[in-house]
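Open question from group meeting: does this chain pack into something compact, or does most of it stay loose? Before anyone orders reagents, we agreed to write out a predicted structure and look at it together. Recording both the input and the output here so the notebook holds the full record.
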Amino acid sequence: MQKKALFPIIYGVLSALIGFIAAFFICLRSFHLTLPVSIMVAGIFALFFFALSWFRGHASYEIKRIAREFHLSDKDLAKITGMKASDFPIYNDKLQLILPKRYWPKVLDALQKYEQERK
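Structure tokens returned:
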């Protein structure tokens, strides 16, 4: 398997495991729920955290890959996404995603459209 496929999965599994343990003990100790109900609720939280973390890992990797593949500068990224150039700092030839994670889907969508136009 490639590094690309492993990073979001490992990130998601670790997040899900931590979320499961935290939700399980909160349900069991704080809310005094039964063991089966606590496991079920913790499982739902774990699935949510896995999906959220997997998407974040995938989006981060894809945004950086497209920027690196097409040698996009901060000004190019700002023009493509309609955001400010200061939202895309590049240090040591690596894009730093400092903008809030809620904007990542918008950035990813714009860059994927740009990539499709170029290919």
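Observations to bring back to the group:
The longest strand covers residues 90-91.
The chain has a mean pLDDT of 94.
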